[in-house]
Write a structure and sequence with these properties.
The protein folds into 2 domains: 161 residues, Rossmann fold, CATH 3.40.50.1220; 105 residues, SIR2/SIRT2 'Small Domain', CATH 3.30.1600. It is built from 9 helices and 9 strands. Helix 4 runs parallel beside helix 9. The two termini are 20 Å apart.
Length: 281
């Protein structure tokens, strides 16, 4: 059975309407955690989401070495599992529409890299990526795999536990960090941090301008799998509103921008985007 076969008649009619609205237009796409839940990566919000009472903030990370140890140990264990999920049909549908000339670019709030692995080439990872690590002192960027090797050499007792339960950040909660050594920058010995935007941290201006350029070059904006609670997503929506281009939202739950949308499709991103790709690509 195709995923699109699971769509009811009313939703299919709405999808046909959206396809006509988008046909012949260059479509920018904004995605959030909801597009990756079908790949097994949990979301922060929505039905079945696991929330965190105290997510890591940039202020805590910089000021508290014990918090950094918890973050790096839990992040490493989670990263070992985080690299396993595969792109799902929603990611694949967007890549298919890019190849067909429908999608002109993707701005994603996710840090999982699944859009790129699915074949999308014009991707702005507005909140960064779990697959790179940055030195906060000298600015050197490292492949996360190299840092993982360094971490395991410094902490040979660290082993991937069975039955990992990922947090929405892609990490796990470690039981004990006693004796854990945080890898230093191999260039200057400085403080490393995964190249992701923490709570309380601003999206780099250059990266946000890249995201804006994706919307500026498009004739419509398709939003998929995000409740738009995070301000960076709303800022992208505002850029589209200023230009007066059509706005389409695909999400299981209501979003902050539903009242502004030309069309809202309430449903999972995998079946809805697959059906849209079938109609447009």
């Amino acid at each position: 059975m195709q995923l699109s076969d699971t769509i009811d008649d009313d939703t299919r009619t709405r999808i046909d309407h959206v396809a006509e609205l988008l046909r012949g237009r260059r479509v920018a796409v904004l995605t959030g955690a909801g597009i990756s839940t079908d790949s097994g990566i949990p979301a922060y919000r929505g039905v079945g989401a696991r929330t965190r009472a105290n997510p890591m903030t940039i202020q805590t990370y910089l000021a508290d070495e014990s918090a950094r140890r918890r973050y790096w140990l839990g992040g490493h264990l989670g990263w070992l599992a985080f690299t396993a999920p595969e792109p799902n049909e929603g990611h694949v549908a967007l890549a298919r529409m890019e190849r067909a000339g429908v999608v002109s670019g993707v701005v994603t709030q996710n840090v999982d890299g699944l859009h790129l692995r699915a074949g999308s080439s014009r991707v702005v990872e507005i909140h960064g990526t779990m697959h790179r690590t940055l030195c906060l002192d000298c600015g050197q960027v490292f492949d996360r795999r190299a840092i993982a090797d360094q971490l395991e050499a410094l902490n040979p007792w660290v082993r991937k536990p069975e039955n990992i339960e990922l947090n929405p950040d892609g990490d796990v909660t470690p039981e004990n960090t006693e004796g854990f050594v945080i890898p230093p920058c191999t260039v200057c010995g400085g403080m490393l941090k995964p190249e992701v935007v923490f709570f309380g941290e601003f999206v780099p201006a250059v990266r946000f301008r890249s995201a804006e350029s994706v919307v500026t070059a498009a004739d419509a904006l398709l939003v998929a799998g995000t409740s738009l609670t995070v301000n960076s997503g709303i800022r992208i929506i505002e850029r589209a509103r200023r230009r007066g281009i059509p706005l389409v939202i695909v999400n299981r739950e209501p979003t902050r921008a539903d009242a502004w949308a030309d069309a809202v499709l309430a449903g999972g991103t995998s079946p809805v985007l697959s059906a849209l790709a079938g109609a447009l690509a």
